[in-house]
Amino acid sequence: MSTYANSNEPVNTSYAHAPARTVSVGDVTFAYRELGPKGGIPVVFLVHLAATLDNWDPRIIDPIAKHHHVIAVDNRGVGASTGEVPDSIEAMADDAVTFIKALGFDKVDIFSFSLGGMIAQALVVKHPELVRKLVLTGTGPKGGKDIDKVAGTTYYDMLRAALTRSDPKEFLFFNRNSTGKPAAKAFVQRLQERTADRDAPIKVKAFQTQLKAIKKWGRGTPDDLSTITQPTLIANGDNDRMVPSVLSEDLHRRITGSELIIYPDSGHGGIFQFHDRFAPAAVEFLAR
Questions:
Q1: CB 54 within 8 A of CB 117
Q2: CB of 78 within 8 A of CB of 94?
Q3: What separation, in Å, do the N-terminal and C-terminal C-alpha atoms of the chain show?
Q4: 288: how many CB neighbours lie within 10 A of its CB?
């Protein structure tokens, strides 16, 4: 049964219960989930390195879905989406455009995190007409300082996590201190709230290809971000080890009129640690 079968049916605003859907374009089938009220400009969520649809924090998505049509998508070759993972951020952005157009939208808001934020930048630079508003979290610009070191940090923290039988995100996204550790555990637990219709985890080869694409992005010639005229909200923690926090400040300087939120005593997953403050800020930004 469709969540939107008729007008008197309640609108689903819970990501844990968002229906799994697919749309095929050529030989690629994109997997996505949608929730929230239809109509208006949808918010497309672009996810992070190694992530599937199961990696979005419901405490971020659900408050946004109370007011907006939310669509989260698996990148090509990841989770339930078919095809091969592209080896460049620009090709991933082309896929995102293909997906958005396949659903029949000619204007969207974009909410992005980490790798998703790189994809969002490449998309808006090439297709400015497609984007109304932009949320860039835990991310950095093309050619940004030390982005090409993401792979090294990632492998190091994955090893640390394996030795303690923890989820690598606990190391990669959060500080290993008295505030970070409980925030990490709570975040990882929230990702388990969806029990039905879960995604297959990313395959090793797909993950390695994504890392190559990030390295290429880090070593690439910077894009001219002064061309971005869309209202842009940038957020991060103050101690991001994956995509250094200074890169959020760099983005803020380069995107005219952008807003920057840096959360204290938090890392790459600052928006998840401070979801109770960030979600309302994102809702307010999108509503303006």
A1: no
A2: no
A3: 34
A4: 6
| Residues 211-234, mean pLDDT to the nearest whole number | 97
| CB-based contacts of 102, cutoff 8 Å, min separation 6 | 23, 24, 25, 30
Mean per-residue pLDDT for 226-232? 97
The model's pTM is 0.96
Other C-beta atoms closer than 10 Å to the C-beta of 21 total 16
Coil, helix or strand at residue 33: strand
φ, ψ at 135 (rounded to 5°): -115, 120
Which tens digit of pLDDT belongs to each residue from 7-51?
Answer: 567 899 999 999 999 999 999 999 999 999 999 999 999 999 999
Q: How far apart are CA 170 and CA 192, in angstroms?
A: 14
Beta-bridged to residue 259, according to DSSP, are 233
Helix axes 275-287, 58-65, angle to 10 degrees: 30
Decide: helix, strand or coil at residue 248.
helix
Question: Is it the case that residue 4 has pLDDT exceeding 60?
Answer: no
d(CA 167, CA 163): 10
The two most distant CA atoms of the chain are separated, in Å, by: 52
pLDDT more than 90, % of the chain:
97
Was domain 15-287 assigned CATH 3.40.50.1820? yes
Q: How far apart are CA 261 and CA 19, in angstroms?
A: 32
